[in-house]
Design brief:
By secondary structure, the chain is an alpha+beta fold. The protein has 21 helices and 57 strands. A hairpin with a 7-residue loop joins strand 46 (about 1090-1095) and strand 47 (about 1105-1115). Helix 5 runs parallel beside helix 6, helix 8 (about 285-300) packs antiparallel against helix 9 and helix 20 (about 570-585) runs antiparallel to helix 21. The longest helix has about 35 residues, at about 230-265. The termini are far apart. The model is unreliable at about 870-875 (pLDDT under 50).
Length: about 1200
């Protein structure tokens, strides 16, 4: 769009002038005549004013994309910020001084831009000037906002308000006298210190009344201390309120223009034309002017449909027989009218794109091009001139830039073109070029026309290229009728003589191609990108910008898709272009790379070209340093190709492996032999790299297409800190020759191995080169070569890979004396027997790992001595702990010790023996076994905690002795209540073997509640231990004695104990282990009364049973109980049948009943003895002791047999 005035191509939005917010920030256009708006009131420069100024500038819509989506937001105006002065352009032109005056008729004054004013550039028959658009877009605002400070000083408020009234009325009067209908908007910014009061509203009302401003649309007030959000909302309120008013302003201008057009009368000029051939603008020309103005005003209103209709009408009128056809092609008005036709078409296309009519926009673009071509061919200088091609390039560039500026959503991604709009009739045939393509398509078309422009410019005769001062006047006049210079330079500038400035055609073409490349690249159109990059590089070479050409061609040459698709002509063209540019730029590396590829016989053979790679840089003075080049097979189409083949798909560690490297030369027949300095073969996996060095003395392969096989002996070495196998062979490759190198190497380590690549190194005095040939997988079967031909075909997925199997180990690992089950709390000792089944001695390392959650560390012992894991070193390549050298058929016992575990768990014990034969210390061999080790708890127990009657008397309140003061080191003596309990532990064996229990005891862990405690074991274990069978249940009883430390302590007390079982396996020398079983917390003291029942047997009267009921009162209260004893059929009793008992605090009382049972050898009962608290009416539960049991009905007492009494 650079060839057109910016006012012609810019999108029109309403103009808003903001005055009074700081100094004017935009440079105002200096006008000699016009209306000056000035004010003596200082500008507002507070923080709020600066924030408002920034918000207004951020809301400028001048740079928005040309689509309805962007302009539907809050940015609606072209915002222009000024100070207190602003100049409006003059409404009418002044009367020329030489104009004759007549008393009968006065001259009519018109606009300074009208064709009717003598001072106008369009006088007398011009159509339009961009200054008219500039006037409405940059000079005459639709609204003029003036900001003022609203003072808070009560002493100055009246004076300040009067100044505001005077200034506002003066501005209104100036706008009215200017002749423009600009709307005045006033905004008052209050000071920070103002306080809201009734006089503020009164002052504002007074100002509105005195100035005649509408309070809803023309008068705004900003309260004090406004936040940033409120300032933003204030600006949005102003913009939203005045926008409809501004739209009406441009609608009024449209109505004015439409009325003048409908009159159909040509206004009289201010003064008649003075030249003899001049004539005023015709009525059809005036209609074109009015249609253009109507379209512009419609764009101001963002009414694109109306704008299209007006522009279409003006365009047809302009290209009709009465306007453009009537203008002589030699007249300057011809180019002006042609320019206006371009602007009409440009604005029509923009409106169509705005409305989404993409195909219609493309058709309009093509239609304008065809119609202008027809006009130029009929009336102009023809379409076979460089001027026409320049316009074609500009017209394509305009379309590309317009599409970018429109920012179509559907073209923002990967889409290359848009489908036709739905308004096109169904069934209408649409040509492919009628779809709207992305900007790259149009930039490419522009580049094509620029190339054609250069071709036509180069055909200009030398006499027409002379500057104006060096040619006769007649010759200059003839050139004016020969060449079309519309929007392009004269012939002497288009293609100047040497030494004269002129047009840089390559720069123009490269610029267009660069823009096209960017667009095509963004959409992944790689072939077009590569084509345009080649054209761009050729243009750089044409202007001798060799560095730029190499910068473009080298990446293109490396990554172009033509090579993979077999388009060798395209590859060759890029290669020769790169070589030419690299030679001139001194890029020796690119020269070598291209020469390497062009030696392939797939490309065209040039008989004059030497095809000798060693002499590629001879005589090139531009190459200053020795280049080092690295090439890969996926980047070039090399004349050398290599394959690597293993004879067998599998091999074993320690065995030899045979493989072949086949190298073929596909160079052109006339090429010189290529001598490679060395070939390095790299592997992925456990194989060492192979390096073949060149050795002179190749007496074979003197005939073309000959196949030669060479067995290469490899020796161990180290290169670049890596173990390497090296060998020597002749590495001279002639055209059409295939050389096969056969290797034999010992496999050292198990795993998968694959030949990755072969690197061909070439070292000369002029350059260093490396070519990396990767061994890729192919669909054709590989071959195993014999002496003169193919020996066999190898059908495998990848013949360059091999599976190396480990060497079958002959070392045996066996666990000796493994128990059926292992238990918690015992140390586990496992014995591993390592037997050497090899025919020679072996050096063995044994690695043992215990795998599982929180696995404990293990200890290995060999002959009673602890063995540690060996450190890695050059001489020790085996992992694990060394157990030494084992002779053939001998064995060694290794002990694995696992410490005792406190929790049950399941682990996996993994053992791996790594060993070397003394005859082959480089090849490790591995043997491994594993077993699951389950650790279980040997015992589980449940518990019963029942009360007993303490044998000692309780302390009395009347006989209580006070405790003496004790030192901190002395033990506190318990003075409180004493109680006795019985803990019954029933433990079961969950072991798989029979275990020997040596002892069962209770350990007191701790107590709470201020008590002392000790226990007594009731169950005795035999001296040789208690033999516990699997799944059997045993019982252990323990008396527990507790006593409160203080007699006054009535709190609850608890006891924490654990059950300790000492056991061992049933075997001589078995270690004794201790298993600790947790016991639930025991409640041993309470302030509540309790009732205990006990049984004893009379020693004087046979079959007499004493049934005692003991009531304990540990509280500080007097308690009264009722006792009731009921008879039974199974016994008779003597004693109190019903009684009342009273217990003082801290006392207990026993009631005895004598029972005479009627049966022997069975349980009698239930005994219905009821103890009731008289106060709470609560029945106390009787707790049985030894010799008794409780069932649902009550307490049962055991009656021994007759002989047991």
């Amino acid at each position: 769009m650079d060839g057109y005035a910016s006012a012609y191509v810019a999108h029109n939005v309403p103009l808003l002038v903001v005055s009074g917010l700081g100094p004017g920030s935009e440079e105002e256009i200096e006008l000699k005549d016009g209306t000056r708006i000035a004010s003596e009131v200082p500008t507002v420069e507070s923080d709020d004013a600066l924030a408002l100024l920034r918000i207004f500038k951020d809301g400028d819509a001048s740079d928005l994309a040309w689509n309805a989506r962007e302009h539907s937001g809050r940015n609606k105006f072209r915002v222009k910020t000024v100070g207190r002065e602003y100049m409006l352009p003059p409404r009418s032109a002044q009367l020329p001084a030489e104009t004759p005056t007549s008393p009968i008729s006065k001259p009519v004054l018109h606009s300074v831009l009208s064709p009717l004013s003598p001072g106008s550039r369009l006088f007398p028959d011009g159509l339009l000037d961009p200054s008219w658009i500039q006037k409405h877009q940059d000079l005459v605002p639709s609204a003029f906002i003036s900001f003022y400070t609203f003072t808070s000083d009560p002493n100055l408020s009246t004076l300040h308000d009067n100044q505001l009234k005077t200034d506002i009325n003066s501005t209104k009067s100036t706008l009215s006298q200017s002749g423009f209908k600009t709307r005045l908007i006033v905004a008052l910014l209050s000071e920070k210190s103002i306080v809201q009061s009734p006089d503020v509203e009164e002052r504002l009302a007074n100002i509105r009344k005195a100035t005649g401003l509408d309070s809803k649309t023309s008068f705004f007030f900003l309260p004090p201390q406004s936040s940033a959000v409120e300032l933003q909302a204030f600006v949005e309120t102003i913009v939203t309120t005045i926008y409809p008013i501004c739209i009406e302003y441009y609608r009024d201008l449209s109505k004015h223009s439409r009325r003048k057009r409908n009159r159909g009368v040509v206004p009289p000029p201010t003064a008649p034309p003075t030249s003899g051939t001049s004539q005023t603008l015709s009525s059809h020309g005036w209609n074109v002017r009015y249609d253009f103005k109507l379209g512009i005003f419609a764009e101001f209103r963002q009414e694109m449909d109306s704008a299209v209709r007006s522009f279409e009408s003006g365009y047809e009128g302009l290209l009709g027989p009465d306007v453009l056809e009537a203008i002589a092609s030699w007249s300057p008005r011809w180019n002006e009218a042609r320019l206006l036709a371009d602007i009409f078409a440009f604005r029509i296309i923009r409106c169509l794109l705005w409305n989404g009519n993409t195909t219609a926009a493309v058709r309009r673009w093509q239609s304008h091009r065809d119609r202008i071509r027809d006009f130029v061919d009929r009336r102009g200088k023809g379409s076979s001139t460089y001027g026409w091609e320049a316009w074609e390039a500009r017209w394509a560039t305009v379309m590309a830039e317009m599409i970018k500026k429109t920012s179509l959503v559907d073209l923002a991604g990967q889409a290359t073109f848009l489908q036709a709009e739905k308004t096109i009739a169904i069934g209408e045939r649409i040509q492919p070029w009628e779809y709207l393509h992305h900007p790259g398509y149009w930039f490419r078309a522009a580049a094509t026309h620029l190339m054609a422009r250069r071709t036509l410019a180069q055909a200009i005769p030398q006499e027409d290229r002379s500057p104006p001062g060096s040619s006769p006047a007649s010759h200059i006049a003839s050139k004016a009728y020969t060449y079309d210079t519309y929007l392009c330079p004269e012939p002497h500038e288009e293609f100047p003589l040497p030494g004269h400035p002129g047009v840089d055609h390559p720069a123009l073409i490269i610029d267009a191609l660069s823009k096209a490349i960017y667009e095509f690249q963004k959409r992944g159109q790689s072939r077009l990108v590569q084509e345009l990059q080649l054209l761009s590089a050729k243009e750089s070479m044409r202007k001798e910008a060799w560095e730029d050409a190499v910068h473009i061609l080298r990446p293109l040459w490396q990554k172009m898709s033509f090579r993979g698709e077999g388009w060798w002509n395209a590859v060759e063209e890029v290669g020769w272009a790169l070589r030419k540019a690299a030679v001139c730029a001194g890029d020796g590396g690119s020269v070598i790379a291209v020469d390497w590829e062009l030696m392939n016989r797939s490309f065209t053979h040039h008989s004059s070209w030497p095809y000798d790679l060693s002499k590629a840089l001879e005589g090139l003075e531009t190459v200053k340093s020795k280049p080092a080049v690295v090439l890969h097979d996926h980047e070039i189409h090399s004349f050398l190709s290599a394959t690597y083949t293993f004879e067998h798909s599998e091999g074993k560690v320690g065995e030899p492996c045979f493989s072949q490297l086949a190298v073929s030369s596909h160079a052109v027949p006339s090429a010189a032999p290529v001598t490679i300095s060395g070939i390095r073969i790299t592997f992925e996996g456990s194989m060492k790299q192979v390096v073949i060095s060149h050795q002179d003395g190749d007496g074979q392969a003197t005939k073309p297409n000959q196949i030669s096989l060479r067995t290469v002996s490899l020796t161990e070495s180290t290169q670049e800190s890596q173990p390497t196998l090296i060998g020597d062979a002749s590495l001279v490759f002639r055209p059409g020759q295939t050389k096969i190198f056969e290797f034999s190497s010992i496999l050292r380590e198990a795993g998968d191995a694959r030949a990755v690549s072969a690197t061909f190194s070439m070292a000369t005095d002029l350059f260093d080169l490396e070519y990396v040939n990767s061994f890729s997988q192919t669909i054709t079967p590989d071959v195993w070569w014999g002496e003169k031909s193919i020996k066999k075909r190898i059908v495998r997925a990848n013949a360059a890979s091999i599976v190396i199997l480990p060497k079958p180990p002959k070392i045996q690992l066996r666990l000796v004396g493994v128990q059926e089950q292992y238990y918690m709390n015992e140390q586990i000792v496992l014995k591993v027997e390592v037997t050497n089944g090899e025919e020679v001695d072996s050096v063995v390392n044994l690695g043992v790992r215990l795998l599982g959650e929180e696995a404990p560390p293990i200890i290995m012992k060999l002959g009673g001595i602890e063995v540690h894991e060996g450190e890695d070193s050059e001489n020790n390549l085996l992992v694990g702990s060394p157990i030494g050298r084992i002779a053939s058929s001998a064995s060694t016992i290794v002990e694995i010790i696992i410490p005792p575990l406190n929790l049950p768990a399941v682990y996996e014990l993994a053992m791996k023996a790594a060993y070397n034969l003394v005859s082959d210390m480089e090849t490790p061999v591995y043997q491994s076994i594993s077993m699951q080790l389950e650790i279980v708890n040997p015992f589980e127990a449940n518990y019963d905690f029942s009360p007993r009657i303490h044998p000692d008397p309780w302390p009395s309140l009347f006989t209580h002795e006070e405790g003496e003061d004790l030192s901190p080191d002395q033990e506190v003596k318990a003075q409180g209540l004493a109680q006795k309990w019985c803990l019954t532990a029933r433990y079961a064996s969950f072991a798989a073997d029979e275990l020997i229990v040596e002892d069962v005891d209770v350990e007191v862990i701790g107590s709470n509640g201020g008590i002392t405690c000790y226990t007594e074991k009731l169950t005795r274990i035999p001296e040789k231990g208690l033999r516990v069978a699997p799944k059997s249940l045993e019982e252990a009883l323990f008396d527990t004695f507790t006593q409160k430390v203080s007699l006054d302590d009535r709190g609850t007390a608890t006891l924490d104990v654990s059950l300790a079982i000492k056991w061992r396996r049933d075997g001589e020398g078995s270690a004794v282990n201790t298993t600790i079983l947790a016991v639930p917390r025991l409640l041993v003291s309470s302030s509540e009364p309790r009732v205990l029942a006990s049984v004893s047997y009379s020693t004087k009267l046979p079959s007499m049973i004493h049934f005692d009921v003991t009531i304990e009162n540990p509280s500080n209260h007097f308690l009264t109980f009722g006792l009731t004893m009921e008879p039974s059929e199974k016994f008779a009793f003597s004693g109190v049948k019903s009684s009342t008992l009273q217990l003082v605090p801290l006392s207990r009382r026993t009631m005895r009943f004598r029972l005479l049972p009627t049966v022997r050898g069975e349980w009698i009962g239930p005994i219905h003895c009821v103890i009731r608290d008289r106060y709470f009416q609560k029945v106390l539960k009787i707790a049985p002791t030894e010799g008794m049991k409780v069932e649902k009905e009550g307490i049962l007492v055991w009656v021994p047999a007759e002989d047991e009494f």
